[in-house]
Amino acid sequence: MAKFTPPEQFDFSKPEAWPDWKGRFGRYRVASRLTEDDETVQVNALIYSMGAEAEHIFKSFTFNNATDGDKYNIVMAKFDEHFIPKRNVIYERAKFHSSSQLPGESVEAFVRQLYELAENCDFGAQKDEQKRDRIVIGIRDKQVSQKLQMKSICPFSWSHIQVTS
Q: Which residues, other chains included, contact 89 with Cβ-Cβ below 8 Å and sequence gap of 6+?
């Protein structure tokens, strides 16, 4: 049987690298057949592989049940919460709703930027309508904006802007 070594210890000074390190550890877990071991062993292998700082972070976690600290998926979710920053939806939506096409900016670039901004806004089922409305309001060419306002299209697509302009 092949022997696999765990990934290098996690660099705690770079929390943005967590998703990549987590992915490498996941592949190690499968390749080494660690997934076949008891979850307590998997949790301990995770913490050991991450490095000494992981011990301190793990001890700071609060679990709903006394046994949750021995459950791999629950512990991994706690590390996700620790390393992956929560999005400030109000801030993200403010950026989205204050976006307007800049002088010299192409309509395509403006629309692309809105699509990217919308990804962080948690609009849910309203995402397409929010993008449509922001395009109609934020586009510099007011004649195109007025034409778009006369159409009751949703979901909105780039082709609708091209046809109208």
A: 120, 121, 122
Q: What is the pLDDT of residues 119-160, one digit of tens each?
A: 999 999 999 889 989 988 999 988 888 887 777 665 555 545
Give the tokens for residue 69. 């600290």
Neighbours of 151 (CB within 10 A): 13
DSSP strand E in the chain: where? Answer: none
Would you give the DSSP letter of residue 85?
A: P
The type of residue at 87 is R
In whole angstroms, give the CA distance from residue 108 to residue 158: 8
The pTM of this model reads: 0.58
Model pLDDT for residues 4-13, shown as the tens digit of each residue:
999 999 999 9
- Mapped onto helix, strand or coil, the DSSP state of residue 150 is coil
Q: What span, in angstroms and rounded, lies between the C-alpha atoms of 97 and 117?
A: 9
The per-type count for the chain, helices as H runs and strands as E runs, is 9, 0
In contact, 51 and 10? CB cutoff 8 Å: yes
